[in-house]
Amino acid sequence: MSLTGRAHGFGDHVDTDQIIPARYLTTTKPAELAPHCMEDADAAFAQHVQPGDMIVAGRNFGCGSSREHAPLAIMGAGVSCVIADSFARIFYRNAVNVGLPILECPEAAEAVAAGDELAVEPETGVIRNLTRRETYQAMPLSGAAGEIVAAGGLANLVRAKLQKA
Protein backbone atom coordinates (compact mmCIF):
# COMPACT_ATOMS: atom_id res chain seq x y z
CA MET A 1 0.00 0.00 0.00
CA SER A 2 1.44 3.34 -1.02
CA LEU A 3 0.20 6.49 0.67
CA THR A 4 0.55 10.02 -0.67
CA GLY A 5 -0.30 13.32 0.94
CA ARG A 6 0.81 16.68 2.19
CA ALA A 7 2.78 17.02 5.43
CA HIS A 8 1.47 18.86 8.49
CA GLY A 9 4.27 19.59 10.93
CA PHE A 10 4.29 19.42 14.71
CA GLY A 11 7.05 19.56 17.29
CA ASP A 12 8.20 17.42 20.19
CA HIS A 13 6.04 16.00 22.99
CA VAL A 14 2.64 16.46 21.34
CA ASP A 15 0.40 14.86 23.94
CA THR A 16 -2.94 13.15 23.57
CA ASP A 17 -4.76 16.19 24.97
CA GLN A 18 -3.35 18.26 22.11
CA ILE A 19 -4.33 15.56 19.61
CA ILE A 20 -7.90 15.36 20.96
CA PRO A 21 -8.78 17.52 23.96
CA ALA A 22 -10.45 15.73 26.87
CA ARG A 23 -13.56 17.89 26.53
CA TYR A 24 -14.45 15.92 23.37
CA LEU A 25 -14.07 12.42 24.80
CA THR A 26 -17.79 11.80 24.93
CA THR A 27 -17.55 9.61 21.81
CA THR A 28 -15.19 7.16 20.16
CA LYS A 29 -16.57 7.80 16.67
CA PRO A 30 -13.73 9.03 14.44
CA ALA A 31 -16.03 11.28 12.38
CA GLU A 32 -17.22 13.06 15.53
CA LEU A 33 -13.68 13.44 16.91
CA ALA A 34 -12.22 14.67 13.60
CA PRO A 35 -13.37 18.33 13.76
CA HIS A 36 -11.41 18.70 17.01
CA CYS A 37 -8.27 16.80 15.98
CA MET A 38 -5.10 18.73 16.91
CA GLU A 39 -7.31 21.63 18.02
CA ASP A 40 -5.11 22.62 20.97
CA ALA A 41 -1.88 22.31 18.92
CA ASP A 42 -3.16 24.00 15.73
CA ALA A 43 -6.69 25.42 15.84
CA ALA A 44 -6.94 25.43 12.01
CA PHE A 45 -5.69 21.86 11.45
CA ALA A 46 -9.13 20.25 10.99
CA GLN A 47 -10.08 22.89 8.41
CA HIS A 48 -6.86 22.47 6.39
CA VAL A 49 -6.19 18.73 6.50
CA GLN A 50 -7.21 16.80 3.39
CA PRO A 51 -7.82 13.05 3.06
CA GLY A 52 -4.47 11.31 2.70
CA ASP A 53 -2.43 14.07 4.36
CA MET A 54 0.19 13.09 6.92
CA ILE A 55 1.37 14.33 10.29
CA VAL A 56 5.13 14.70 10.71
CA ALA A 57 6.29 15.36 14.25
CA GLY A 58 9.25 15.36 16.57
CA ARG A 59 10.03 13.24 19.61
CA ASN A 60 7.56 11.46 21.87
CA PHE A 61 4.44 12.02 19.73
CA GLY A 62 1.29 10.88 21.54
CA CYS A 63 2.58 11.11 25.09
CA GLY A 64 0.06 11.42 27.88
CA SER A 65 -2.92 9.21 28.43
CA SER A 66 -3.64 5.73 27.18
CA ARG A 67 -6.88 6.64 25.40
CA GLU A 68 -7.48 5.30 21.90
CA HIS A 69 -9.33 8.50 21.04
CA ALA A 70 -6.11 10.14 19.81
CA PRO A 71 -5.37 7.82 16.86
CA LEU A 72 -9.10 7.55 16.14
CA ALA A 73 -9.35 11.35 15.85
CA ILE A 74 -6.33 11.41 13.54
CA MET A 75 -7.86 8.74 11.31
CA GLY A 76 -11.22 10.49 11.37
CA ALA A 77 -9.55 13.67 10.14
CA GLY A 78 -8.37 11.75 7.07
CA VAL A 79 -4.70 11.50 8.01
CA SER A 80 -3.21 8.47 6.27
CA CYS A 81 0.04 8.17 8.24
CA VAL A 82 1.95 9.69 11.14
CA ILE A 83 5.73 10.00 10.87
CA ALA A 84 7.68 11.03 13.95
CA ASP A 85 11.14 11.01 15.43
CA SER A 86 9.65 8.78 18.14
CA PHE A 87 6.29 7.82 19.63
CA ALA A 88 5.06 7.35 23.15
CA ARG A 89 4.74 3.58 23.48
CA ILE A 90 1.05 3.56 24.45
CA PHE A 91 0.17 5.79 21.47
CA TYR A 92 2.19 3.53 19.17
CA ARG A 93 0.28 0.47 20.38
CA ASN A 94 -3.10 2.21 20.16
CA ALA A 95 -2.35 3.44 16.63
CA VAL A 96 -1.46 -0.08 15.52
CA ASN A 97 -4.57 -1.49 17.21
CA VAL A 98 -6.89 0.88 15.33
CA GLY A 99 -5.01 0.47 12.03
CA LEU A 100 -3.27 3.86 11.76
CA PRO A 101 0.06 3.55 9.91
CA ILE A 102 2.89 5.11 11.94
CA LEU A 103 6.58 5.27 11.17
CA GLU A 104 9.53 6.28 13.31
CA CYS A 105 12.08 8.18 11.22
CA PRO A 106 14.20 10.88 12.89
CA GLU A 107 15.68 11.90 9.53
CA ALA A 108 12.26 12.57 7.98
CA ALA A 109 10.99 14.27 11.13
CA GLU A 110 13.91 16.70 10.86
CA ALA A 111 13.90 17.27 7.09
CA VAL A 112 10.21 17.36 6.09
CA ALA A 113 8.55 20.78 6.14
CA ALA A 114 4.86 21.54 6.43
CA GLY A 115 3.32 21.42 2.98
CA ASP A 116 5.84 18.98 1.50
CA GLU A 117 4.26 16.25 -0.63
CA LEU A 118 5.13 12.77 0.63
CA ALA A 119 4.80 9.23 -0.70
CA VAL A 120 5.05 6.54 1.97
CA GLU A 121 5.20 2.76 1.83
CA PRO A 122 4.50 1.55 5.40
CA GLU A 123 5.43 -2.05 4.55
CA THR A 124 8.99 -1.10 3.54
CA GLY A 125 9.38 2.07 5.60
CA VAL A 126 10.35 4.10 2.53
CA ILE A 127 9.35 7.76 2.77
CA ARG A 128 9.83 9.86 -0.34
CA ASN A 129 9.67 13.62 -0.09
CA LEU A 130 8.40 14.52 -3.55
CA THR A 131 8.85 18.25 -2.92
CA ARG A 132 12.53 18.05 -1.90
CA ARG A 133 13.35 14.95 -3.96
CA GLU A 134 14.72 13.15 -0.91
CA THR A 135 14.18 9.64 0.41
CA TYR A 136 14.26 8.53 4.04
CA GLN A 137 14.22 5.05 5.51
CA ALA A 138 11.98 4.41 8.50
CA MET A 139 11.68 1.21 10.47
CA PRO A 140 8.90 -0.56 8.55
CA LEU A 141 5.77 -1.88 10.17
CA SER A 142 6.39 -5.59 10.13
CA GLY A 143 5.40 -8.76 11.91
CA ALA A 144 2.23 -8.60 13.98
CA ALA A 145 2.08 -4.79 13.91
CA GLY A 146 2.28 -4.74 10.12
CA GLU A 147 -0.37 -7.44 9.85
CA ILE A 148 -2.73 -5.54 12.18
CA VAL A 149 -2.34 -2.22 10.34
CA ALA A 150 -2.70 -3.89 6.94
CA ALA A 151 -6.00 -5.42 8.13
CA GLY A 152 -7.28 -1.99 9.22
CA GLY A 153 -6.89 -2.67 12.94
CA LEU A 154 -6.90 -5.46 15.48
CA ALA A 155 -10.67 -5.94 15.48
CA ASN A 156 -10.70 -6.35 11.69
CA LEU A 157 -7.83 -8.83 11.81
CA VAL A 158 -9.53 -10.94 14.49
CA ARG A 159 -12.83 -10.83 12.57
CA ALA A 160 -11.10 -12.01 9.40
CA LYS A 161 -9.31 -14.84 11.22
CA LEU A 162 -12.53 -15.97 12.89
CA GLN A 163 -14.35 -16.04 9.56
CA LYS A 164 -11.66 -18.33 8.15
CA ALA A 165 -11.87 -20.69 11.14
Describe, in plain words, how this protein is organized in 3D.
Helix content is about 35%, strand content about 20%. The chain is an alpha/beta fold and about 160 residues long. The mean pLDDT is about 95.
Quick overview:
This protein is an alpha/beta fold.
Task: Sum up the structure in keywords.
165 residues; alpha/beta; 33% helix; globular
Helices and strands in order:
Layout: E1 3-9, H1 16-19, H2 30-33, H3 45-48, E2 54-57, H4 69-76, E3 81-84, H5 89-98, E4 102-104, H6 106-111, E5 117-121, E6 126-129, E7 134-137, H7 143-150, H8 154-164
Helix pairs in contact: 5-7
> Widest sheet: strand order?
4-3-2-1-5-6-7
Mean pLDDT: 95
Low-pLDDT stretches are none
Sheet of most strands = 7 strands, mixed
Order of helices and strands: EHHHEHEHEHEEEHH
- Tell the overall outline: globular
Backbone structural class: alpha/beta
Radius of gyration: 15 Å
Span between N and C termini? 26 Å
How many individual β-strands? Answer: 7
Q: Hey, roughly how much beta strand do the residues contain?
A: 15-25%
| Helix proportion range | 25-40%
How large is the count of helical segments?
8
